[in-house]
Amino acid sequence: DVKVTQSSRYLVKRTGEKVFLECVQDMDHENMFWYRQDPGLGLRLIYFSYDVKMKEKGDIPEGYSVSREKKERFSLILESASTNQTSMYLCASSPGGQGLGELFFGEGSRLTVL
Amino acid sequence: LAKTTQPISMDSYEGQEVNITCSHNNIATNDYITWYQQFPSQGPRFIIQGYKTKVTNEVASLFIPADRKSSTLSLPRVSLSDTAVYYCLVTELDDYKLSFGAGTTVTVRA
Q1: How many CB pairs (< 8 A) connect A and B?
Q2: Dist CA B91 CA B97 (whole Å)
Q3: Residues of B with CB under 8 A from a CB of A
Q4: Distance (Å, rounded) from C-alpha A20 to C-alpha A66?
Q5: From CA B98, how far away is CA B80, in angstroms rounded?
Q6: How many structural domains comprise chain A?
Q7: What CATH code is carried by the domain that includes residue A95?
């Protein structure tokens, strides 16, 4: 069974802390994504990666960075967390080529910044 | 970038058919449509995908008219467990972009 695993389901951090959200997929997928989900705003793309060491900005990259050193792992980094980054963060992966839109999501990481 | 629009919410009763329409007026030739279902505190999961005409699987059907400017997800004979948020996604293969709709909250009542 395919699986996308996010390292933490719930995190509480303080303003100014550096936050790492880790995501691992076991499907050998080329594409990986980080989304943010807030009530009434749906799914908003932060960053995505279509290959190792490659990254592309999504719709809301400000305040975030990403790292993809290995194919199976995609990390989201908040360099200095702020209260407006309190949200649900969802990682997803998809195959290459025509499989781009066949996303497999993790369970999500709910981050609270105090 | 294709913009997707879908209704905010829909109510239904057990045993009824639910149809959710997504508008995507700027869809391009090589774009295709995918629908996802999301329960509270879980990530969205794939329901169905299509390019044109009609696609059916064990849980849903997807109708796409000839002009492809909209698509309709059809859930036959819904049950209480179908209460969820449903998302429409347009995948633009040429530009390597994905555009989610804002989601439709479907509430099924007994």
Answers
A1: 51
A2: 6
A3: 32, 34, 36, 41-46, 49, 87, 89-91, 93, 96, 98, 100-103
A4: 9
A5: 30
A6: 1
A7: 2.60.40.10
Of residues A40, A100, A106, nearest to B43 (C-beta): A106
Tens of pLDDT, residue by residue over B9-19, are 999 999 999 99
What does the pLDDT profile of chain A (114 residues) look like in tens digits?
669 999 999 999 999 999 999 999 999 999 999 999 998 888 999 999 999 989 999 999 999 999 999 999 999 999 999 999 999 999 999 998 878 889 999 999 999 999
For B9-109, the fitting CATH number among 3.10.150.10, 1.10.3720.10, 1.20.1290.10, 2.60.40.10 is 2.60.40.10
B24: phi then psi, degrees, rounded to nearest 5: -145, 75
CA distance B72 to B64: 7
In sequence order, the 6+-apart residues with CB closer than 8 A to the CB of A64 are A34, A46, A47, A76, A77, A78
Domain that holds residue A9: 4-113
